[in-house]
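Inverse folding, one chain.
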């Protein structure tokens, strides 16, 4: 099966879940169960789902183009590989900006202590601000001693 052939349900049997009324109760006493109303569909989520599906289809198309350009053969995990190659194609051809890299180490601690200094009790605030200042100063490493 290829990834572009749609899969359809071919069963034509109607699904019936009817329970017969108890034998000792007359049929005119048994009340019919109320019909279950379908949940309303959120239009925003439906639109987001359609947009995501279009994005995946576009990435798969670009992945096939990438394979064609680079002379690659199809892989085993076809859909996932096509999406990955589609992203690579976008980066190579300038269709998408590269993702931003994570911050350097140490920034998280500085931000955490700066946020902590804003919410800590006033009595402890100078000590926390002193820690923040110490983290923000550039580290000076002395040269190794000649032996």
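Residues assigned per position:
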């Amino acid at each position: 099966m290829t990834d572009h052939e749609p899969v359809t349900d071919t069963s034509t049997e109607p699904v019936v879940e009817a329970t017969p009324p108890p034998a000792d109760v007359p049929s005119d006493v048994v009340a019919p169960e109320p019909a279950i109303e379908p949940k309303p569909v959120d239009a925003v989520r439906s639109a987001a789902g359609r947009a995501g599906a279009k994005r995946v289809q576009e990435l798969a198309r670009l992945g096939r183009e990438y394979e064609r350009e680079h002379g690659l053969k199809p892989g085993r995990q076809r859909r996932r590989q096509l999406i990955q190659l589609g992203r690579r194609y976008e980066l190579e051809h300038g269709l998408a900006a590269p993702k931003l890299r994570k911050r350097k180490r140490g920034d998280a601690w500085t931000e955490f202590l700066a946020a902590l200094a804003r919410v800590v009790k006033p009595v402890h605030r100078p000590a926390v601000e002193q820690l923040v200042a110490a983290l923000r100063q550039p580290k000076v490493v002395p040269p190794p001693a000649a032996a």
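The mean pLDDT is 78. Residues 107-136 form one domain.
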